[in-house]
Design goal:
Helix content is 38%, strand content 30%. The protein is an alpha+beta fold and 389 residues long. The strands form three sheets. Strands 1, 2, 8, 9, 10, 11, 17 and 18 form an eight-stranded mixed beta sheet that branches. An eight-stranded mixed beta sheet has the order 6-5-13-14-15-12-16-19. 46% of the residues are buried. The chain binds 8-demethyl-8-dimethylamino-flavin-adenine-dinucleotide (RFL) and P-hydroxybenzoic acid (PHB).
């Protein structure tokens, strides 16, 4: 089998790239390790930058996001009894859209099916070959058969644990990593959100976030020790702890109910350089991870896809490969700024077990700066709604 761009990974990065290329007549094949049901059962991000929403429109998949997504013009930050609203519209003239990653992925799969584009699910032993030549190919096992796909390019959209990044030789690859001594315990519940906008709360007991998917579906998180397991927390314990960490007015009006999903995600900052090698291009979690505190994981995946899509268009439509050659450099410039922002939001709002009194005081001063300085709020808002790409 032959295609122009072989895409490894049927998560949001791979599917969005495939759909964008399809709108411009470029062929793709998507290989996914899991079943479609599995991919669509993962509860992850919920906040989309306008740049992401624009790419969904360009891909022709923005209809349900437009009708069901919620426009949010600000967020509240709360820190040890103090509260502050960051007004995105006033500060930047922009907003974010609340629409879950699960729904984004569903819309992209539906569009892929409708266009009759090839997707292989439950692929095993995916391996990449001859990436440093003009004729790369991929081999994998599908329904018990060894299968081979030849392509012009390979897009590695296979997440943090996929094989694409490992295909860049160790002598070329440089990985930067920072881990955090805690995770996020997330709960999804069919209850009305506690507030119309998101609340990011730092408290002595640790961080909490009140988020949502729609007016009848709430998503809440609390910082927890890495040693915890979701079964360590029954629903009552979770709600009690959440209430202790949210601002008092929110805690008093919180409506609780049974959890329909509960999971723990570790927090990590990670970047792989370069993001390309020969004819392989990495996008999204395959190349970088951010702690979720600034809602940047999925959005940074989308900016990679945007850069790669335009570079591939220039190559195929104009025979100009300059942007492809510069892909890694271009994407990494934005990624490092997003890494900085996600690390900063995480440090500002979480409790660190071994934090010195000096570091605690500077975090408090950081919050005071946000309260007193419009310039400081502007920097936060500009990053939260998304840097341009
Ligand atoms: P994904 O979504 O991980 O998709 C990669 C896909 O590749 C498949 N795959 C393979 N396919 C073929 N062959 C192989 N050998 C393969 N190995 C893996 C996988 O099955 C998967 O379908 O990466 P992508 O597309 O780059 O999208 C990135 C986003 O998913 C990610 O940045 C965010 O979800 C991060 N993230 C969150 N971001 C937020 O902004 N807010 C959140 O609340 C939030 N929660 C999360 C998260 C990431 C999590 N992970 C990765 C553990 C919660 C979790 C649990
Ligand atoms: C979510 O709704 O899952 C969510 C929102 C904002 C974040 C992280 C996760 O920063």
């Amino acid at each position: 089998m032959r295609t122009q761009v072989a895409i490894i990974g049927g998560g949001p990065s791979g599917l969005l790239l495939g759909q964008l290329l399809h709108t411009r007549g470029i062929d793709t094949v998507v290989l996914e390790r899991r079943s479609r049901e599995h991919v669509l059962s993962r509860i992850r991000a919920g906040v989309l930058e306008t740049g992401f929403a624009e790419l969904m429109h360009e891909a022709g998949t923005g209809e349900r996001m437009d009708s069901d997504g919620l426009i949010h013009e600000g967020v509240t930050l709360a820190c040890r009894g103090r509260q502050l609203r960051i007004d995105f519209e006033a500060l930047t003239g922009r907003h974010v859209v609340i629409y879950g990653q699960t729904e984004v992925t569903r819309d992209l799969y539906d569009a892929r099916d409708k266009a009759g584009l090839p997707t292989f699910f439950e692929c095993a032993d995916v391996s990449l070959h001859d990436l440093n030549t003009d004729t790369p190919h991929i081999t994998f096992l599908h329904e018990g058969r060894e299968t081979r796909i030849e392509s012009d390019f390979v897009a590695g959209c296979d997440g943090f644990h996929g094989p694409s990044r490992q295909a860049i030789p160790e002598s070329v690859r440089h990985e930067f990593e920072k881990t955090y001594p805690f995770g996020w315990l997330g709960v999804l519940s069919e209850t009305p959100p506690v507030s119309e906008e998101l609340i990011y709360a730092g408290s002595e007991r640790g961080f909490a976030l009140a988020s949502m998917r729609n007016p009848g579906l709430s998503r809440y998180y609390i910082q927890c020790p890495l040693s915890n397991h979701p079964d360590d927390w029954d629903d009552d314990e979770f709600w009690q702890e959440l209430k202790r960490r949210l601002p008092q007015d929110a805690a008093e009006t919180l409506i609780t109910g049974p959890s329909i999903e509960k999971s723990i995600a570790p927090l990590r900052s990670f970047v792989c350089e370069p993001m390309q090698w020969g004819r392989l291009f990495l996008c999204g979690d395959a190349a970088h991870i951010v702690p979720p505190t600034g809602a940047k994981g999925l959005n940074t995946a989308a900016s990679d896809v945007g850069y790669l899509f335009r570079a591939l268009l220039r190559h195929y439509l104009r025979g100009d490969s300059t942007a492809l050659g510069e892909y890694s450099e271009t994407a990494l410039r934005r990624i490092w700024k997003t890494q900085r922002f996600s690390w900063w939001m995480t440090t500002l709002l979480h409790s660190f077990p071994d934090r010195s009194e000096f570091d605690q005081r500077t975090a408090e001063a950081e919050f005071a700066m946000l309260q007193e300085s419009e310039a400081a709020r502007h920097v936060l808002a500009e990053n939260y709604v998304g840097l341009p790409y």
